[in-house]
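Quick one: structure tokens for this chain, please?
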Amino acid sequence: MGSVHTRSEEAQVRTSSNPAFRNLPGTGQGGYATFGSAGAYAEMSGPTVDPGRAGVAERPMTIDDVVTKTAVAVGTAIVAGILTIWSGMYGLALPAAIVGLVLGLVLTFKPDWAKAPLVLLYSAVEGVFLGGITGLLESVPNFEGIGFQAVVGTVGVFIGMLVIYKTGAVRVTPRFTKWLMGAMIGVFVLMLVNLVVSFFTTGGIGLRDGSPLAYLFSLVCIGVAAFSLLLDFDQAERAIRAGAPARFAWYIAFGLMVTLVWLYLEILRLLSYLRGE
């Protein structure tokens, strides 16, 4: 009966749209999370030992760990962004984007490295990147205050999706996950095609040129990023229920930062279209 129950649980596992969460301990082949039970986590990860105290089991992660680490990561990004805008060093946006991409890939594929120093460095670099872009837009006539509006919009979407998740208004089911993954793949493929075409023609295929199609695409991107938060919340809750060690709260904070950075950028882009009319 135990074997049948285990197979039944594994048949209902879900993947996160956020690639960062696919490598958390308790992740099976193909990127499917097996956080359905503490037993599954223990089977995949083995006993957890505090590296600082040999032979002493590390305490399990709690929701407070996730909230605290995520708040620190987001706060670091905000401070870095404000300092970048205040200093006027907008040229740091491009190198920060490159460094952020490298750090993001490293943390995604090396989850054991996701501790406070690297996660906070990633957050700071992304803050510089977002601050540089926001500062450049703020310096354009008629774009004053666009950064504040984007922050308010991002916070509003985050709170709204958290309420939706907690109330169960939208359930994170395997079908929902597959639909969202398909939508995300489609969005990134279109972004890539638009980027490649833009090297040869002005405006690419019209996804980022302020046209009605660009408005629609930005709204779709915001929607996909927003619903990705539901999967991120679900993965964090599953990790907690499975007894994941406290140190992985930093990894979950990193995963949420990835989604929030994308969401902020898309909201900022949409606001720039509206301000540019």
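The CA atoms of residues 154 and 264 lie 6 Å apart.
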